[in-house]
Predict the 3D structure of the following.
Amino acid sequence: MYHKIKKIHNINGDLMNNIKRYNIFILLSTIGRNIVDVFSSVLLYKMGYTLREIILFYAILYLVGAFISILTIYLTKLIKSKYILMLSSLIFSLSFYYMSTMTKTFSNLIIFSIIYSVGSYTYHILRHYYAIKATNNHAKKEIGGIIIFTNIAIIFSSLVASYIQAKLSLVFLALLIIIISVIGSLFLFKFNNIKEEEKIKYDKPRRNQFIFFLLEQGKVINLSFQPLYLYLFVDNNLKYIGLFNTIIGISSCLFIYFFVKKIDDKKYFKYLNIVFCLFLFLKLNITNKYFMLVVALFEGLGIKMFEVVSTINLYNIRQDTNVKGYLSVSEIVFCLTRFLMCMVCYLINNLKVILYLSIIPILITGFIKRKDA
């Protein structure tokens, strides 16, 4: 009996250590990657690319990402996930360096989108893999903690990103991203009691879970084009975009802590999501940059509320689920849905209309009933 209690205690201790290690990993890797991510659409626009070309960049990014996600999972049978994440950091940094030095041509845009996709989606699927392995039965509190650490990283990177890009050489910035991301990956080397599946079995999401996956991609499209909207219609200054994201981040951290502890997300998500969508709609009818920062304060509450629910939904799996197979199917759904949405956006070719339409699937997600695995 004593040995069983001791074994349970050791397992719980390992899980606690794993979530701490994962939080440090997600903090550092998000800082490194968000320096580029937050401004990518604006930087391409400043280079002279049109809205249609920027939409095409995202479409290729997501289409390639679907294949890269599957390839990454199969590569884990040959190469340890930790080493793939280190390689991913290198490729991601090279994609940014390539963008910073390329001339404005269509072929360069295609090449950049492919490199960027490889660097991004070798990371995203493994990030989710380690999160599922680190959380204890995918507890809401632990997931909230992961998102808070992600948010802290976004706050930090948003504050310094515009300054760094203006003051430091591109080579130095690329090296900085590699160093920060690799240091973060080192914390995954000490994960305890994590056994990777030897076989990959494709486990598909449940029906309601699948519908939620489809609809929530509207939020991804909305956030992808939000910086460009702020730049074109509110204030064409990278520092302002950084400040907007910082305010969102600060309000998000405060709300996540309260939301995770006090609010029944299955009961109140629908109503909070409606309020969130109203703020997304309001934002598209404001041009005053100071009033827009007030909107950012409330939008941050909605974004992270949505992200907590979205992450819980993704990590809500049975104990016997083949995690790698399940995440492969999920990432394919994510990427192909985003690709199709981008194709619709390409035909529309109007930034405000695109953002208005992206609110519709976000709103509908609130009415999707979520069930425990």
